[in-house]
Amino acid sequence: MKEIEYSENGKLIEKAGSVIKVLEKYAKTFQERNPNLYLFNCEMHLDEAIPHLHIDYIPVAHGYKKGIETRNSLTKAFQEMGFTKAVSRKQNKTVAWQERKRAYLTELCKEKGKTAGKGVGQTE
Questions:
Q1: The model's pTM
Q2: Which residues pair with 100 in a beta bridge?
Q3: Alpha carbon distances (Å) from 53 to 47, 87, 120
Q4: 17-63, pLDDT tens digit by residue?
């Protein structure tokens, strides 16, 4: 993760200090919580109304019997991380992972005495 640059936006940083700490902790623990998602870039943006992270990762899966043993596969990466097979289009591994990350973010917010908004953990 890149070091956060506290620049001319001092008021935002002051008002959003606890949110920034939540996002820093989330970013620093991302790889540990998601061992099959290889984190290669993580940036915090303070240039918009709400501080947020842009996280780039590569899903990595192991144990293929033919060809290369380690491959890029989100489905199998989630499977290796313990997510069960899809029940429907709305109940699948990706949705389960998103729910887990939202729950973790909500927990981090509570630790800082903040309430997580409805947009917590949403992706663009």
A1: 0.77
A2: none
A3: 11, 30, 11
A4: 788 889 999 999 999 999 999 999 999 998 887 889 999 999 999 99
